[in-house]
Amino acid sequence: MADSAPPNASLGTRLKFALRPKKSRSRLAKKPPPEHMSPDLVRLNSEASRPQTAKSVHYHDGSTRAAPDLIDKSTGERKDITALLHGLQDNSESGEHGYYTEHDENRKPGEPLVASLSSNLWMKIVDFLPLSDAASLAFATKVLFQKIGPGPWENLRLEENHQHRAEFLARLDRSMPRHLLCFPCAKFHLRIQPGQETLKPPNILNPLFECPNAQNPLLPPSRLRLTPHRNLPFTFVQLVMRAHRYGPRYGIPCEELFRRWRDPESGWSHQTRYHVVKGHLLLRVISQSFATPGLPPSGQRTLLFSREDYTPYFSVCAHWKDGELTNLCKCALNHLPKEQAGNGPEQQLQRRIDTVRKASAPLTALRAASQCPECRSIRRCSECPTEYLVELKLAEDKSDKAQKFKQAISVTRWSDLGDGTTPATPEWAACKGDNEEYDSFKAIGRRAISGTFESQTGDFIPGQRVRSLNPKNQKKGDEGHSWY
After folding, report:
1. Closest CA to 283 of 172, 431, 114, 101
2. C-alpha angle 388-377-266 in degrees, rounded to nearest 5
3. What is the pLDDT of residues 115-168, one digit of tens each?
4. What is the pTM of this model?
5. In the chain, what are the helix, strand and coil shares in percent, each to the nearest 5?
6. Which structural domain range is residue 125 located in?
7. R_g (Cα) of the chain, nearest Å
8. How much of the chain, in percent, has pLDDT values that exceed 90?
């Protein structure tokens, strides 16, 4: 290769020649073997110093390609990819960016550096912190307590700082395995039956600890509505997440919350299931009921809504009135195949034949009704991390011997209940309707809650696209009548 570019070369070629590294004048020469070295050692030394060439690799498609060069050209060392990956993993585990190590024996104590700053400076730093963080800072070391003083702790005793006191005590969960934080009292109470807590219906007295405000209607415990006459207390979310983070003696496994029940008044059957994914507790509630084809609007309302408080029989979040949830259920009910009209001899005979055929036919011979794209899509509430799926299925009715399998409507709800630290977490507060600033599409993104939940079992992964439950973003509540 010439040392300079040709006269008629392009600009890129000239830059390539100008920026090319210069050849070194000192060349490496092979060291002559010592006189006392044997011929065999000379041969082994020459083979070891010989550069290794890349070996060819035979692939399954019959092609042969050169293997990647595992010899560093600058140092002559073999590149160990496994050691490189383990080194990257060690760096990621030691810190977020690999700048520090968790256990550094040579690290100097930081108390002298903290003590070198004046108390006035530390008090100015505390003024920028929330009260719970300021109390945690004073609780960190004795030096910080001497600089900051007991002022943040004394402010936590005030009644207007009840929420900050609960947030501060929630950070002490790890040191209180036999206690549970009561948020209405903002105190730790001793658990009555550690590890034996059981979720029961609300009409059954089920205390987990002795609380002086247990019967106080002004300080009710935080609960999430599942279905009529069923709810989920936040204390059980605490127990599940504590056991997941710290160990089994801190709470109970999430499998203890699985339930199946049937409402005798409405005829709806329900089943709940939970999973802990990335530090959050996910909930799934499947509600199902037999549906008669060709119901009028009044019959659809009787099937879907409770006569007591006009809430749906299935599981809903606090924003169900503002969206299209009930309209989607009514749309799905309209897709059920209707029976033939008329009461003549031919129609009666045909209905009898269809009844006998349905009773004797296997389940594979029956087909569920098809739905339109509007009512079969997964819908996500824009104000809380909750998704819904309305389906028409074939369900077995063991009480009816004439017609064993019938058409049924199924409403599945998936919700993210948060990390279980406090009831003020964004997910839990949004599902209850207490967090008006929550935007589920910005917080969750493209990954659906339903897909995340169902991927834990692998039995069923919904393939429908996720759409907004309230595309018009109308918030009328009880003033809007479209939900009924």
Report:
1. 431
2. 45
3. 888 888 988 988 899 999 999 988 888 888 888 888 898 999 998 999 999 999
4. 0.72
5. 35, 15, 50
6. 111-169
7. 35
8. 40
Nearest to 122 by CA among 105, 95, 101, 143: 143
pLDDT in tens, 327-356: 999 999 998 877 655 565 666 666 666 666
Of residues 417, 451, 419, 93, the one with CA closest to residue 279: 419
Q: Which residues pair with 260 in a beta bridge?
A: 271
Is residue 72 in some structural domain?
no
Judge contact between 192 and 207, C-beta under 8 A: yes
Residues 194 and 262 in one domain: no
Of 135, 169, 203, the residue at which a domain comes to its end is 169
Chosen domain end from 248, 277, 306: 248
Which residue, 222, 287, 256, 247, is CA-closest to 427?
222
In a domain, 366, yes or no: yes
Output phi, psi for 136, to 5 deg.
-65, -35
Residue range 51-75, pLDDT digits in tens: 444 444 454 445 554 445 556 666 6
Q: Token pair of 395, please?
A: 């369900």
Would residue 238 count as lying in a domain?
yes
- How many other CB atoms are there within 10 angstroms of residue 254's CB atom? 21
Residues 243, 144: one domain?
Answer: no
Do 367 and 442 sit in the same domain of this protein?
A: yes
417 close to 235: Cβ distance less than 8 angstroms: no
